[in-house]
Amino acid sequence: QVQLMETGGALVQPGGSLRLSCAVSGSFRGINAMGWYRQAPGKQRDLVATITSNGITNYADSVRGRFAISSASATNTVYLQMNSLKPEDTAVYYCNSETVDRLLRRMISWGQGTQVTVSS
């Protein structure tokens, strides 16, 4: 079983910055990729950014140039640095991981979500 714990959500003013963290723990052999998704009220959950185990990143067009995803393999933690925040960035942010077990079976896991609100 894999657990994800997100931290860092908060209320921030437009133009401000925030950093989210997500620690992956549990029983797995390795992590293929980690990422962040977000869901605004009444909308579907959308990809924000992903990072693979070899450091390849991918961003949604709406956040490219403002957000940066990074990871620390030693602690199985993924970060999302969010700069120049806009009201439309307001959403619940979910951490996601793709892990493999000792039999190399892949598992997708989700965190419980952390609220980010951008408002003056």
How would you describe the overall organization of this protein?
- It is elongated, with a radius of gyration of 14 Å.
- It has 120 residues and is mainly β.
- The protein has strands at 2-7, 11-12, 18-26, 30-39, 46-52, 57-59, 67-72, 77-82, 91-100, 106-110, 114-118.
- The mean pLDDT is 96.
- Strand 5 and strand 6 (57-59) form a beta hairpin.
- The strands form 2 sheets. Strands 2, 4, 5, 6, 9, 10 and 11 form a 7-stranded mixed sheet that branches.
- It has no helices and 11 strands.
Low-confidence stretches: none
- Helical proportion, percent range: under 10%
Radius of gyration, in angstroms, nearest whole number: 14 Å
Identify the overall geometry. elongated
The tally of helices reads 0
Break the fold down into its secondary structure elements and pairings.
Elements: E1 2-7, E2 11-12, E3 18-26, E4 30-39, E5 46-52, E6 57-59, E7 67-72, E8 77-82, E9 91-100, E10 106-110, E11 114-118
Parallel strand pairs: 2-11
Antiparallel strand pairs: 1-3, 3-8, 4-5, 4-9, 5-6, 7-8, 9-10, 9-11
